[in-house]
């Protein structure tokens, strides 16, 4: 599974197979996402389909943990409401979540005013709590950045060229050179 792309017919067929009550809702592709392809489903939902090797396991964690985290967070997060099970049609876990209106941070202007920084700080403070004993850990989160260089290089190579690629590498190199926590 390497950066799969799904079409509307396929997504609708998954819904018909496992969640037929949702299959007739409007369905439209949403731009963005690293590990999942996302489709807006009706007005209030989204379908997230894994397109990288690690994505299915991440979606399973989201399905388990986001409903518990969401009530204590000061900003909305996409809460899984349905789970798509692996099947002959698609051998991976996928989810249906609530839709969170807004623009992804990586697609929005960086200058959102002073409220944006305070909102982010409040969100991170609410999230930063001691995890329950059965909470999952990640081999790629909270690790020294240099361990992620090969993956970042692969991603930026596919996303940029020329001066933009050179600048992205410069920013990454600067981040890797920073003191470890």
Structural features, described:
With 181 residues, the protein is of the alpha+beta class. The chain folds into 2 domains: 8-103, Phosphorylase Kinase, domain 1 (2-Layer Sandwich), CATH 3.30.200; 141-181. It is built from 5 helices and 5 strands. The protein has helices at residues 8-18, 55-69, 114-127, 149-159, 162-177, and strands at residues 27-30, 36-41, 45-50, 80-84, 94-98. Strands 1-2-3-5-4 form a 5-stranded antiparallel beta sheet, with helices on both faces. Strand 2 (36-41) and strand 3 (45-50) form a beta hairpin. Helix 4 (149-159) runs antiparallel to helix 5. The relative contact order is 0.11. The mean pLDDT is 88.
Task: Please give the structural blueprint.
Elements: H1 8-18, E1 27-30, E2 36-41, E3 45-50, H2 55-69, E4 80-84, E5 94-98, H3 114-127, H4 149-159, H5 162-177
Antiparallel strand pairs: 1-2, 2-3, 3-5, 4-5
The helix fraction, in percent, is: 25-40%
What overall form do the CA principal axes indicate?
globular
Question: Uncertain runs with pLDDT below 50, 5 residues or more?
Answer: none
Class of secondary structure makeup: alpha+beta
As for the number of domains, it is 2
- Average of the residue pLDDT scores: 88
Which CATH top level class of the largest domain fits?
Alpha Beta
Q: Walk across the major sheet and give the strand order.
A: 1-2-3-5-4
Cα separation of the termini: 34 Å
Percent of residues in beta strands? 5-15%
Tell me the CATH superfamily of the largest domain.
Phosphorylase Kinase, domain 1
The biggest beta sheet is recorded as:
5 strands, antiparallel
Q: C-alpha Rg, in Å?
A: 18 Å
The ordered string of helix (H) and strand (E) elements is: HEEEHEEHHH
CATH domain fold name of the largest domain: Phosphorylase Kinase, domain 1
Number of helices: 5
CATH architecture of the largest domain: 2-Layer Sandwich
